[in-house]
């Protein structure tokens, strides 16, 4: 199997602009960020949450808490995954009680990851609200879940795959659309 890239749909500047807009929307929706905390989902949601924290600090002068959530074991399609479940690190060293929690992920697809993240969150505490920010919404939801903040809506077919690449993990900032092909 190999990944055949079809198009670059966001470059470094586009990602930056999208995050900047989302940060402004978070401020507006919550009438400030005094009660906001950010929680990145697993791998690529975490650097995205950290970038949002930095932009929010620039525009509001306040540093909101950032945590990370690893929900691999909560996925309801766990037994369908070929790879072994990975128990990653959940790192939330602040209270989410009565907070406006903004969950951050790179791609929203079926919605199953977010459902699992909500489960994991509810085990930790009772937030006032939970909002969802994603860089890419590619459609094909299988659950009644929607994002509050979207970097870019990308119509896709189920065969396609969106790859979000971030400097902190992949050494480059870009979003590409492609397809997995047989060798
Ligand atoms: O809405 P869903 O259908 O749950 O898909 C979205 C999730 O899928 C991706 O993770 P993936 O499971 O591919 O793991 P990875 O990011 O570690 O590759 C992505 O990072 C989202 O977390
Ligand atoms: O296209 C997709 C679907 C799920 N997760 C991704 O990262 N990309």
UniProtKB/TrEMBL annotation:
GO terms for biological process: regulation of DNA-templated transcription. A motif (PRPP-binding) lies at residues 101-113. Its EC number is 2.4.2.9. The keyword Glycosyltransferase applies. Keywords: Glycosyltransferase, Transcription, Transcription regulation, Transferase. It catalyses: UMP + diphosphate = 5-phospho-alpha-D-ribose 1-diphosphate + uracil. One of its GO terms (molecular function) is uracil phosphoribosyltransferase activity. Gene3D superfamilies: 3.40.50.2020. It comes from the Bacteria. The keyword Transferase applies. It is an enzyme of class 2 (transferase). Residues 9-155 form the Phosphoribosyltransferase domain. Belongs to the purine/pyrimidine phosphoribosyltransferase family. PyrR subfamily. Regulates the transcription of the pyrimidine nucleotide (pyr) operon in response to exogenous pyrimidines. NCBIfam families: PRK05205.1-1, PRK05205.1-3, PRK05205.1-4, PRK05205.1-5. This is Bifunctional protein PyrR. It comes from Dictyoglomus thermophilum. The gene is pyrR.
